[in-house]
Amino acid sequence: MALCARADAPLHCLWEVHGRHNTVYLLGSIHVLRAADYPLDAAVLDAYARSSALVMEINLGDVDSAEVQSEMLTSALLPAGKTLTDVLGAARYAHAATLARDVGVDLGTFDQFAPWFAAEAISQLQLTQLGFQSESGVEMYFLDRAKTDGKSIAGLETVHDQIALFESLALDAQAGYLVSSLEQAHDLPHEVGDMVNAWKRGDTRWFASEMATEFGKDPALYQSLLAARNRKWLPKIEALLNQDKNYLVIVGTGHLVGRDSVIDLLNKDGVGATQR
């Protein structure tokens, strides 16, 4: 596995895999960054420059369509007649509301919304307050460049796939996810700073440890959100190695580190991935 950071050379959350006639670069991303986190490292920019095509988890260029926005809104709402209080139960809701209040959020704002959406929205609100924007994330940066440079853009899955992923989670599992997210909310400013620093120095051990901690209490959630998707992506990524042009594949860094990661699965298939 390509998890050990070398002490003799700077590393990045970037791997390269060689096909017979091409190279596929695998870049671990942070979905939100600050303007101050740019410019990106030269090795990352070089991987983009050498690639003719961009592949992301989803093609973010599709997200703004009216159809997708409508589907996202529908999936975010609870079934008619249900409220967040109903889903969490009185005691768990009271605990969650206190945690949300501690970070300046009125949980009642999300009373008609599914727990997964409330968790994501609250985390995004906190990140925005800290100066992190999805518009400044790694994917959006390279999406804009690829559009300008006329490079092809594709996704490993669709927006519908990602929506269905959360919709398929049982409401009780979603409730647990929301509470767990709120329990970690106080530490978010410190943790996101550590994450960016680890990403900049290619510290895959830090990310692997965080993944183990975050999902250790809920193996089913780990399988659903990470491991199962990695397995679905693997044949698509391996198929790129049969092409004649180079690709830059960008996915969340958590998908590229630790057991059952894309890098781990490639290695098990006898495909070597070198961290740069």
What oligomeric arrangement do these chains adopt?
Answer: single chain
- N-to-C order of helices and strands: EEHEHHHHHEHHHHHEHE
> What's the domain count?
1
How much is the average pLDDT?
Answer: 92
What is the gyration radius calculated from CA atoms?
Answer: 19 Å
Distance between the terminal alpha carbons, to the nearest Å?
14 Å
Number of helices: 12
Major sheet description: 6 strands, mixed
Structural class: alpha/beta
Question: Which spans have pLDDT < 50 for at least 5 consecutive residues?
Answer: 1-8
The helix content is: 40-55%
SS elements, strand count: 6
Order of adjacent strands in the largest pleated sheet: 4-3-5-2-1-6
Strand % is 5-15%
Q: What is the approximate shape?
A: globular
Explain the overall architecture.
With 276 residues, the protein is α/β, with parallel strands linked by helices. The protein has one domain. Helix content is 51%, strand content 10%. It has helices spanning 42-49, 66-76, 84-88, 90-102, 115-129, 138-149, 159-167, 171-183, 188-200, 204-215, 219-240, 262-268, and strands spanning 14-18, 23-29, 53-56, 152-155, 247-252, 274-275. The protein is globular, with a radius of gyration of 19 Å.
What's the helix and strand layout?
Elements: E1 14-18, E2 23-29, H1 42-49, E3 53-56, H2 66-76, H3 84-88, H4 90-102, H5 115-129, H6 138-149, E4 152-155, H7 159-167, H8 171-183, H9 188-200, H10 204-215, H11 219-240, E5 247-252, H12 262-268, E6 274-275
Parallel strand pairs: 2-5, 3-4, 3-5
Antiparallel strand pairs: 1-2, 1-6
Helix pairs in contact: 2-7, 4-8, 5-8
